[in-house]
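Report of the visiting student (M.T.), summer placement. My assignment was to run the structure pipeline on a short list of targets and document each run. The first record concerns UPF0256 protein.
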Amino acid sequence: MEIRSTTEQDLEVFVDTILAAFGRFREAPAEDDGNLWSAYEMDRHLLAVTDDGRAIGTAGAYSFELTLPGEIIAPAAGVTAVGVLPTHRRRGVLTAMMRRQIADLRARGEFLAVLLASEATIYRRFGYGPATYAQQLKMSRQRAAFALPPADDGGSIELRRRADCGEIIEELYDRYRRVRPGALSRPHRWWARGAGQAPVSTAAARHIAVHRDRDGVPDGYASYSLDDADMLIVDEIITTDDTVAAALARFALGHDMVSDVMIKRVPSDDPLRWQLADFRAAQVADDGDWLWVRLLDVPRALTSRGWFTDGEIVLDVDDPFLGEHHRWLLTVRDGKADCIPTDREPGLSLDVTDLGSIYLGGTSPSMLVRAGRIRAHQPGAAALADDLFRAERVPFCLHWF
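After the run finished, the structure tokens were exported:
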């Protein structure tokens, strides 16, 4: 078996292989816009092939930007399209591809990789840890009245079709993702080709409710559709203003001929349930992990994010997949960090997967100490780590890749 890099000429076989790995069939030609693979970066993909040249496995990566705590924008490899044909599973193909991919990412100088895990048991062994989480809210329209009247901010909402407002929602999403820790960029290539899921994708019809401020400037949007059961399904509400988010939620809940409203993904700190007269009117229909993070270069990753508490702690970090074990002194002063090798006694011992989980501030180190995943060697070490690794707000990612 060989793991090799791909070129544009490999697109067809790459797509056919990953679809077969997931038991699916091609629904449209690979060259058509609207398919996820129209945004593939074939110079970042890998194929596992047999000695006689048959493709049996795939792994890819996108070039994203990830917003770190402190509104710091950092490059991140978005790992995607990882699969092995059913005929060749449990033979080390996946492990070989992931090892080669990490080596390639490091050779590019990248220090962060992220992915969405199809199964939660697969990617820990490769060094990835769940780092952001998302809830799905479902509300009965009859019960979901707001406790207070709407804010009189002079704003307005206009209804557009997805095909008519691509530039507006692309700009609004870009503004939003730059201030939300855990958010990923949506490169223009995705919007231009309609790749991925709605509202980026143009394959499925969507209404877009665009909110404008008192001066007529767009400052938020909601993407939605109605299903056959009279449920209004909101793909996402995008804005940097809680008042605008509330206005867009009111719009969705005020839609005629609708029995229920579902918002696909909201962060755990979303205030909507607290804005309703009946707190129980918004039920959490799903609550799970979303973005998984892998640190490829621990010192560079730790010194790249913003920090909000001064202090120092020694982290003993094990990376069994790469056979690496290092002890780092993390020192934070005035929002910036130094991270250097040390032989001092550790405050915490942890696996690189758990370092990925706490990196964005969405998982507290003390929770993982309680779970037995992180070992605290000194009294107060877990509480100190909680203070150090916190973010300015809950990290959250909407982008699907």
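The two ends are 28 Å apart (CA to CA). Residues 306-389 form a domain with the Nonspecific Lipid-transfer Protein; Chain A fold (CATH 3.30.1050.10). I thank the supervising group for their guidance throughout the placement.
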